[in-house]
Amino acid sequence: MGLLDLLEHWLLKGADAWVARQPRRPPRRGRPAASGIVAHRGVYDNRRVYENTLAAFERFEAAGGWGIEFDVRWTRDGVPVVTHDPDGRRLFGIDRPIAEMDLETLQRRLPLVPTLAEVVTRFGGRLHLMVEIKSLPAKDGPRPAAALERHFEHLMPSRDYHLLSLNLDLLQRLEYNFTHACVPIARIKTPEIRRTARTFSWGGVAGHFALMRNRQIDALHRDGLMVGTGFVNSPNCAYRELERGVDWLFSDRPLLIQRTLSRLPPAGSSSTW
């Protein structure tokens, strides 16, 4: 992590802590129809249940969750697998890069890492899939967009899944046919990313709530784009984001946020608080 990345990380953590402590009344807008709560890498503790695993996703499905976010990388033989890190060192003590292992080797050395096919087969159509593309396969490998389209062929783009990336260049190079299912993740230059999303007919923009200003959210909605913010990890932050009209709430504490929002009246209800 570079110096700027580290500075941004701590600034955003400070924003999280500040917003969590600010008392807020439940929003006037009420609960969104589909909740839009997205479990960031599932529900996990990285001791008994690990992030980005079938078990982590099953926990949110069992709780009646709406969506899951997970990360995709590619093995040496061009198979998309679900893992955040470029290797297994942080979680499993194995530092060999994912991109240097074929699928057989990965499944032997990192058996908890599922393939994208396993996740889509198990949860596609049951949970909304927010798929963050972390890398693309080697240039001499299969065309990644075609491979992804085959994986999602029984699902409807936008309704059932979205493809996300922090790397705008990567999202452009992907050349995914269903552009409305693509969502760039903004860091600091949100207005620039909004213009890029319009240019490529992408379907929305996601980013940290502290970097998404109200006027930017309103402008994105005027453009017909969806908006997602993270990481919404406290009731006060959830109330704030719903009041701002955010469509998707990405959370590291999705069960807490789900319980919080389940107590709100539905949008349009005459109930008062």
Please supply descriptive tags for the structure shown above.
TIM Barrel, 36% helix, two-stranded antiparallel sheet, alpha/beta, 11 strands
CATH architecture verdict: Alpha-Beta Barrel
- Give the overall average pLDDT: 90
Number of strands: 11
Helicity range: 25-40%
CATH class value: Alpha Beta
N→C terminal distance: 44 Å
Radius of gyration: 18 Å
Element pattern in H and E: HEHEEEHEHHEHEHEHEHEHEH
State the low-pLDDT regions, or none: none
Global structural class? alpha/beta
- Order of the strands making up the biggest sheet: 1-2-6-7-8-9-10-11
Count of structural domains: 1
The biggest beta sheet reads: 8 strands, parallel, barrel
Identify the overall geometry: globular
**What name does CATH use for the topology?**
TIM Barrel
Number of continuous helical runs: 11
Strand content: 15-25%
CATH superfamily: Phosphatidylinositol (PI) phosphodiesterase
Structure notes:
The protein has an eight-stranded parallel beta barrel with strand order 1-2-6-7-8-9-10-11, surrounded by six helices. Strands 4-5 form a two-stranded antiparallel ribbon. The protein has a single domain, classed as TIM Barrel. It has 273 residues and is α/β, with parallel strands linked by helices. It has helices spanning 3-21, 54-62, 89-92, 103-109, 116-123, 144-151, 168-174, 190-199, 214-222, 235-243, 254-262, and strands spanning 37-40, 67-74, 80-82, 87-88, 94-97, 128-133, 161-165, 182-186, 204-208, 226-230, 248-251. The longest helix is centred in the N-terminal third of the chain and has 19 residues, at 3-21.
